[in-house]
Write a structure and sequence with these properties.
This protein is of the alpha+beta class and about 70 residues long. The protein has one domain. It has helices at about 15, 60-70, and strands at about 40-45, 50-55. The protein starts with 12 loop residues before the first helix and ends with a helix.
Length: about 70
């Protein structure tokens, strides 16, 4: 991969970061899920289409932490 300074890379964190040299990252931005324990709904377009996602985790916070831990180690 050809990496550039001050750039945004989108992808699975473990896959993308595996291509970076050690000690070369100053900031990582995490996008949802955040374990907000909420349902999100948005009326889209003509008002008839509903786009939504659920930010709830079976197994509660413990399951969420295990899932996140795997992503950030």
């Amino acid at each position: 991969m050809d990496f550039k300074t001050n750039s945004i890379y989108c992808g699975d964190c473990k896959d993308v970061l595996s291509h970076f040299p050690d000690k070369s990252v100053d900031l990582i931005y995490l996008d949802p899920p955040f374990f907000s324990n909420r349902n999100y709904e948005v009326i889209w377009g003509d008002g008839y289409e509903l786009r939504a996602f659920e930010d709830k985790w079976k197994g509660g916070i413990e399951n969420y932490i295990l899932w996140m831990e795997d992503k950030i180690r």
